From TrEMBL:
Protein name from the UniProt record: ABC-2 family transporter
Keyword annotations: Membrane, Transmembrane, Transmembrane helix
Residue ranges of the TM segments: 15-35, 150-170, 182-204, 210-231, 238-258, 299-318
Length: 336
């Protein structure tokens, strides 16, 4: 064996190390995507109850017995107030504790999984007392073309991948930092228009204003891609990898798009809403089906990520200029 071959053999990691690393990566991927789904259950889901105080207390006790810790009860005066609370996204549904006309109000557009749980509770109430079987009304239903909300749930992954791929390709194909940023913003706009068009006009998963839906998607893609560009600009490939892993392994599975943030393991749902995928999902539901109600926090989160991405890119540009000056003190850098 030649000296060169021997040197190459020494530089290569052993097969056991490679297999171990691949096993760890596979396990992490499984945990990241399967654990939130496997542990999904109601946790302090806000639900309104309308009726006199004794009836509200009785309903609250029944819900606690059926699903301990599953619901956060918000008393309201009447059915109209319950409907308003649902449309304002203050609650996911409501129970009308009226002995003459019991009713369960749901909003499948706000979360199909929660609507299904409330519908099952209504069936359980009917089984216990057929004479007081509640009527089930979907106050804010999903579109007829996508009654399960599958399009919106499936759209989370392309949204995250779009931001990651934009940052990865721009760092490889475009040298000037300012042009990378311009490319990321341009792609965010075109990607938002394209994804919203597919989801709204082809799959029928969205309602509301097309440009507003596109804008939410564009904000999310821009927030992810600019943040990753800035991390790569500052600390290189490791920064890009760290940012991509955060968005893919935390942001996507913790977005709550397939269920609801409150149904994820305690604390993780709140964390997911502080990342672009979760904030974008909540904002999309609000803009598409609830006239923007309840989207305030999500837009703040997306705006903060956008600002952070721009700040990271600015720091990266400053650092690049300093390096050029140190390497060529006689020159003034014009492009970074």
């Amino acid at each position: 064996m030649s000296e060169q071959t021997a040197a190459e053999g020494r530089r290569r990691p052993p097969v056991v190390a490679v297999v171990t690393l691949l096993t760890v990566i596979l396990t992490v991927l499984l945990i990241a995507f399967a654990w939130p789904a496997a542990r999904s259950e109601p946790r302090d889901l806000p639900v309104a109850v309308a009726g006199p105080q004794p009836a509200v207390t009785q309903v609250a006790a029944g819900l606690e017995q059926a699903m301990p810790g599953g619901f956060e009860i918000k008393p309201v005066t009447d059915r109209a107030a319950a409907v308003q609370a649902i449309e304002d996204r203050d609650v996911y549904g409501a129970i009308i504790a009226d002995p003459q006309a019991p009713e369960v109000l749901t909003a499948s557009a706000g979360g199909p999984a929660v609507a299904q749980i409330l519908t099952q509770l209504a069936s359980r109430m009917a089984a216990q007392d057929p004479s007081a079987a509640p009527k089930v009304t979907d106050v804010v239903p999903l579109p007829a073309d996508d009654p399960r909300g599958a399009g919106l749930a499936a759209g989370a992954l392309p949204l995250v991948l779009g931001g990651i791929l934009a940052a990865a390709l721009l760092t490889q194909l475009v040298q000037a930092g300012a042009r990378r940023m311009a490319g990321a913003l341009a792609f965010a706009v075109s990607g938002g228009l394209a994804l919203a068009a597919v989801l709204q006009f082809w799959l029928g998963s969205f309602e509301g204003n097309y440009l507003a839906n596109s804008g939410v998607i564009a904000m999310s893609i821009a927030a992810i891609s600019l943040t990753l560009l800035g991390l790569e600009w500052l600390i290189g490939t490791a920064g890009l990898g760290l940012g991509a892993a955060t968005m893919m392994l935390l942001g996507n599975p913790l977005s709550g798009l397939t269920s609801a943030p409150e149904m994820l393991p305690s604390g993780w749902g709140s964390l997911g809403q502080l990342l672009p995928p979760g904030a974008a999902g909540t904002a999309l539901r609000s803009v598409s089906f609830f006239d923007g109600a309840g989207a305030g926090q999500s837009f703040v989160v997306l705006s903060c990520w956008l600002a952070a991405g721009l700040a990271l890119c600015g720091l990266g540009a400053l650092r690049s200029r300093q390096r050029v000056v140190q390497a060529h003190p006689e020159r003034s850098p014009v492009t970074v």
